[in-house]
TrEMBL record:
Species of provenance: Sphingobacterium wenxiniae
InterPro entries in the record: Hexapep, Hexapep_transf_CS, LacA-like, Mac_dom, Trimer_LpxA-like_sf
Stretches assigned to the Maltose/galactoside acetyltransferase domain: 8-62
Tagged with keyword Acyltransferase: yes
Family listed: Belongs to the transferase hexapeptide repeat family.
Residues of the signal peptide: none
Keywords, alphabetical: Acyltransferase, Repeat, Transferase
Primary enzyme class: transferase
Keyword Transferase appears in the UniProt entry: yes
PROSITE patterns documented for this protein: HEXAPEP_TRANSFERASES
GO MF annotation terms: galactoside O-acetyltransferase activity
Protein name, as recorded: Acetyltransferase
Length: 205
């Protein structure tokens, strides 16, 4: 571990760090204040609400929509691709980078956790934490009440069924679900042609 790194640099790099660092505390407070304004704003003030996220998040594209309430730790570690939509109660603990691709849809009550704590109680009680990045590639759909754990990548075009706990990488072009989340099947060309006609909705919602 590089002792010359700041606590913030350690956090973003995936090194153990103490989260009660003054700079990190102030940055979390700033994010909370901005999100308080965001979540309290009148529903019709979409442009003003989106401007708060443009200022808070690390990267946004031209088209995105997040239904309030929305929560995150810092904001600056979150990158949103184009045509992003998230339904109510999205929570992103962005102690490490969270990169979300284009055309991603997220259902209600989804949580993305980059943050983790030591298994052994002594360092955990002392306040040590770590964080690993999360990547959600293009065209992914994440069902409601899903939890995505630190270090996970979800491959392009894949669908995560509701109620899943994603602890390992999910490949591209599959339907996956469960606790722990596992691949159920591949997405087929027939489904593109038939759209929702033959789709097993219970796999997703």
């Amino acid at each position: 571990m590089d002792k010359t790194k700041s606590t913030k640099e350690k956090m973003i790099a995936g090194d153990p760090y103490l989260a009660m660092d003054k700079i990190l505390f102030d940055e979390r407070q700033h994010a909370k204040m901005e999100l308080f304004k965001y979540n309290s704003m009148e529903p019709t003030k979409i442009k003003a609400r989106n401007q708060i996220l443009k200022n808070l998040l690390g990267k946004t594209a031209s088209t995105f929509f997040i239904e309030p309430p929305f929560r995150c730790d810092y904001g600056y570690n979150i990158e949103l691709g184009d045509n992003f939509y998230a339904n109510y109660n999205l929570t992103i603990l962005d102690c490490a980078p969270v990169k979300i691709g284009n055309n991603v849809m997220i259902a209600p009550n989804v949580s993305l956790f980059t943050a983790g704590h030591p298994v052994h109680p002594e360092p955990r009680i002392a306040g040590w934490e770590y964080a690993f990045p999360i990547v959600i590639e293009d065209n992914v759909w994440i069902g409601g009440n899903t939890v995505i754990n630190p270090g996970v990548t979800i491959g392009k075009n894949s669908v995560i069924g509701s109620g899943s706990v994603v602890t390992k990488d999910i490949p591209a072009n599959v339907v996956a679900a469960g606790n722990p989340c596992r691949v159920i099947r591949s997405i087929t060309e027939e489904e593109r042609l038939n759209c929702a006609k033959n789709q097993k909705i219970e796999e997703i919602r």
